[in-house]
Amino acid sequence: MALLLRRCLLLIIAALLTGCGEAPYDDGLLKHQVTGLVTVNGQPLDRVIVRFQSTDSSKTGNAAQPVGVTDAEGKFALSTSADEDGAVAGEYVVTFLRTAKNSESGDDMFRNRFTKPAQSKHRVTVPDHDLEVPPIHLEVPAAWLTAAPREED
């Protein structure tokens, strides 16, 4: 009897554990994995925020601005509604910014050089399939990478 009771308890626990997971969020958008590499002054740089701004004004909300953040190897993967879920097909202007580590001000270490979509030289078309974006190379004065921006910058 004790053996049967133990087995029943194990089955109940197993059923509860498998049923407790949350279903992934479904925003109804068809997205494709978008990954890439960003270098700054020829080197990979972490914590660069890579924002894709859709050129299609009919896209709204998160679909209009998928975002990724580079890791220590300069690699990023775009997220629209969930972590690294990709981007909707279409054309995008790409902008970049980086804040100082543990920054309370959130000031861009690139001094807003790459934050304005109208001035961006980087455009990407996300096709109807996954995309590895060609490497993106940014150049900034070396001092910008070691010192937080000041008012006069």
- Helix percent band: 10-25%
| Outline | globular
What composes the largest sheet?
Answer: 5 strands, mixed
Mean pLDDT: 86
- Counting DSSP H or I runs of 4 or more residues, the number of helices is 1
What is the first-to-last residue Cα distance?
A: 77 Å
Question: Care to count the β-strands?
Answer: 11
Oligomer: single chain
Radius of gyration: 21 Å
Low-confidence stretches: 8-19
Topology as H/E string? HEEEEEEEEEEE
Class from helix and strand fractions: alpha+beta
**Strand content bin:** 25-35%
Question: What would your notes on this structure say?
Answer:
This protein has 153 residues and is α+β, with helices and mostly antiparallel strands. The chain is built from 1 helix and 11 strands; from the N terminus they run αβββββββββββ. The strands form 3 sheets. Strands 2, 3, 6, 10 and 11 form a 5-stranded mixed beta sheet that branches. The N and C termini lie far apart (77 Å).
List keywords for this structure.
5-stranded mixed beta sheet; 4-stranded antiparallel beta sheet; 11 strands; 153 residues; alpha+beta; 12% helix
